[in-house]
Amino acid sequence: MSLETLLGQQILNGLVMGAIYACMALGLTLIYGILDQVNFAHGEMYMLGAYAVLVFSSWLHFPYPLAILLGMVAIAILGLLFEHGIFRPLRGTPELNTIIASLGASIFLWNLALVVFGPIPQELKTSIAFQSVQIGPLSTSVQRLLVIFVSVGIIGILYLVIMRTRIGKAMRAASQDRDIAQLMGVDIGRIAELTFMVGGALAALAGGLIAPIFLVYPSMGLMAAQKAFVVVILGGMGNVLGAITAGFFLGVVESIAAGFVSSQLRDLFAFAILVLVLWIRPEGFFGRTAKKGG
Amino acid sequence: MPHDPRAQLVEERPKAAFLGDLGALVRRLPRARLTLALGLLALIAVPWVVRDPYLLHMINMALIFILVASSLNLLVGYAGRLNLGYAAFYGVGAYTSALLTLKLGWPFWVTLPLGGLVSLAVGLVIGVPCLRLKGPYLAIATLSFGEITRIIAHNWDAVTNGPLGVRGIPAPNPIPIPGLGTITFVSKTNYYYLLLVVVLLCLWGIRRLIQSQLGRSFQALREDDILAEHVGINTVWAKLVNYAVSAFFAGIAGVLYAHYIRYVSPETLSLGESFTMVAMVVVGGMGTFTGPIVGAILFTWLPEILRVAASYRMVIYGAIMMLSILFMRSGLVGAYATLMERWQHWREGRTP
Amino acid sequence: MNARRRSVLVLALLVVLVPLVLTGCGPKAPASVRLGIVGPFTGSVAYYGNLMKQGGLLAVDEINKAGGVNLGGKKVPIEAFPVDDAGKPAESVAAVEKLITQDKVVIVIGAYLSSCTLANLEVTGRYNITQIVPIAVADAITTGHPWVFRNCPNQSMQTGQMAVWAVEKSGLKSFALFLQNDDYGRGGGEVFRKAAEKAGVQIVTTEYFNLGDTDFSTQLTKIKSLNPEGIFLVALVTEGSQIVKQARSMGMTQQFFGLGGFASQKFLELAGDAAEGMIHVSYWEPDPNNPKSLEFAKAMPAFSGMEAEMFSAATYDAVYIAKEALEKAGCASQEAECQEKIRKALHAMDYMGVQGRTYFDEEGQGQLCFYIVRVQGGKRTIIDKACPGGS
Lengths: 294, 352, 391
What we know:
heterotrimer, A: disordered C terminus
């Protein structure tokens, strides 16, 4: 295999993970941008999304695309519960509180999944998952291509919604200045609900798409969340375009670094990049969206 | 007393500070002094009352984590600087002492403070880049540093022995007492006394720090650090000292742990450990003196108490963390104090 | 008394009274043969820990049904104390402390993970209690620890044999190493490297992955690009099954070689078709040459509902070996004299069990044969047998 082909292959692999990171980070950054709150249980939404799709598709035998849709709906509802149960009561109180409360929710949820589903990873079988596909000299599987295209598609649709529709405008207004937006008639409560539902649905999508490639297990949300946070910071907290770009960027960089430098230190790269960014330019590559006050 | 603008920034927490006034109480009321003496006597008598070595083991573990939680409380509770990678400081102290005593044969009594100092250095290395970070940025940065430290411990085979960890860590060197023989520290009873002395000393140190001028500026950091700058508090200095002291005591606790369990591994630095430490402080009562003590005892004994419901244990942890923030903002200690006050009022209401 | 002083007293008394209340006062009087079984019954490897536990409990059940352990003419039943260590070394230490000081066990059987075993053998060493290790493979466990015995092959033994088989008997000339990034993986890699050198076989690359990783495409892509004939994989079931699946889906056709960790139904379930053709080590198979193993294969599901696998087989044998040793020693107590007799008995033992013949060398390392198997038609087929002393 020539160097270009190897590089191309690693990049292709990286794009798959990048798409997942982008989906996860998008949800997180929306929540932070609009509501100023951090959801440390975001990884669990990803994990529960994967389990939901597993239940719908492997246990209840719904077709895979329907299972994904249902999974997204289910986790959107979970997002709603988060909003009302944890984030709304704590809005306005010191940040420490939401961080710890959502951390508690994270520990609660992934251990609950451990008890309910067991620690053994489970398989999400679809008929097409492992079929090989050749694109020129590069080979990949159908499922991996699906991950890239579906995520890009959904992200694209979301981006258009945020930029072009009224709801999107309301969200952007709220992310710039919540108080003034409220004065202008934006229903912050509604927006908050919507944001959490969208974030949850995106996480569930990521989980459901990736599940046939990897396995589904209760602690899968932990590392995913950590990477998502790295991406969010890289792209600038609250910055939608930043999150998307940084997501793909991290996926590809990780893949190339692990492939050409050392696979032993793969996870270290993400953390090292994070530390570097926090040190040199905490606003991320693209900077935060404008916010009131400090 | 001249008007000290800094005093305005310090939020009064009378509800949970009852034990804090102990010092004043002791000076004023001879009965309080007696109670304190009784308390100390009770602590000294513990190994004679508790005969079961397994229970003594649990008490020793609780003591170690009381120190951990109290020093984390300095960071999280008093200065409001969340740290999700605290196990790194603790672990660094543990590994340092373990390796120095095992591989270089240095005496425990030297490596104990040394472990604390190395942790202090690491604390500064991590603390300096984190100085200007707040909220979620700080949380994620500290989490990442914690993970980086763990990954290094896991991969640096030559030094840390990788995932298999460091075994056979020696017990603290015996102290010869002229005329009475030597005190060894292999038995749990003797180690209990060692822990009692060291932990009480450290707690006393933490208490003094909190009550000092510097300690009050920590609280100013928590409330509003821009305002703190304006009234003349050197926030950079305060943050650095806060980090350094907190890391130092965590390192000491780590050393005590290493020479008690006689084994350290990268697991000791895991995310789960860091989260548990935060839970101890939060559920016990952030920013109070007794809160972390209660939290540490609770979370050290909970796994044993819950052995029956073993797989539900972490579920309960998570639920407790969530619920305490939502409903008991000042932790168990605060809830208890509120309860006591209410009962007091009720009693006063009943007396004619 | 006001609320403040009350609180101080409460706090002081808390430290003293709560532990007493929690677990009752005083030690319990021994009236049976007490065996401790420590392993991960919760946590990420709980599946295997529970297989361990059930295998041990089946043996205890059988022995007690037949009356118990014969100590100097009297038959004493076994009381088993399974304690969970959740796969964490610090908890394993606490678990064994509890077993020895509270439950007063005479022999400790366990653990599953090498890291846990290395940690908790310090405890059994300190109290001078004999330990039998049925599963953990790290070499260091028996080296220099005269109170520890292991009734399964260690890392060097199984890796050495598998490596020799791969480089000499398979006919393949070039290999890639894909290793778990810890002592298990790196140790295994070292052994293979030495064997390859001796046989003059080429190693094209060494790649690593971390426990918990799910995406191996990067490393597999690199391996694929270098086109070795065989891949030596040191991994556990979860990651291993993913690796073979992802490799096959990338169109890789190399021959996979693996260690004992793959000898589990779970691996076959998770890897599915991708496991086909893989050659690996297995400590225990239902072997027509060993009728005991066939009986065990039937008894396990009947007793516990779980399939008979090597984890249960090893623990089952460990319990029986413990029984034999106690009977030879004629005592069952924690006292040093008795423990010495138990260890003497273990060193002199030559036991035929469901794992075949077991005897211990001077270090306490069990000398057992194990199998080389190939996955054919979704099942493991024995293709060779490796015994100590090479054969």
